[in-house]
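Support case: zinc ion complex. Customer-provided input:
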Amino acid sequence: MKLEISPSILSADLAQLGREIELCEVGGADAIHVDVMDGRFVPAITFGPIIVKACQRVTKLPLDVHLMIVEPEKHLEAFAEAGAALLTVHVEACAHIHGTLQAIKRLGIKAGVTFNPGTPLDALWNVVDLVDLVLIMSVNPGAGGQKFIAHSIDKVREVKRILAEVGSEAVIQIDGGINTETAKAAVDAGATNLVAGSAIFGSPAGIVGAIGALRNAVN
Ligand code: DX5
Ligand code: ZN
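Agent response - structure generated as follows:
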């Protein structure tokens, strides 16, 4: 499977968002990762559907929307209508994770499920047939620029084992603290999609250079 890189616009210069997304395209990004935070599931508040819509106007790249919000089922339609190609929900935030993933699929878009660093993967067995992507959080969600949590690598390996056992071709995504030092171990363990915020938008190499450096680091 080709390695995908999904820059997280949480660390972008939001006053220049259109230009920054354009540079992600030039650099060969595979998707744009949009971190939605509600001030409840995580302390910070970030973007809503209108920002997803604004992104859709400036790029053809798929919009990968990571919902760090409580009761995500109330907002699925709004994000799908705004142009999300993929909606990823937290098992910790869903009272009915199976039903919420079914609801995403009914909207005709891709569904992702994600697990915080402290959450075991048990629930994955029960929803694996519904998901196009499994996201392993390698930091506690809520902010960019945090330190990579090393045990996430074992979880990625475990996800890979579970997917192989059931014959799923779901993407394994990792998010948090991914940079040229941590990416290779994640990919060797089975991650096929890397989310990176500060390593791309905060890099002195620039956005295009940083995406290239991340790809080189895993080869
Ligand atoms: C964290 C977000 C991440 C964040 C990653 O809650 O889900 O997508 O932007 O930022 P970095 O790559 O800086 O750790
Ligand atoms: Zn994210």
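The chain has a mean pLDDT of 98.

Case will auto-close in a few days if no follow-up is received.
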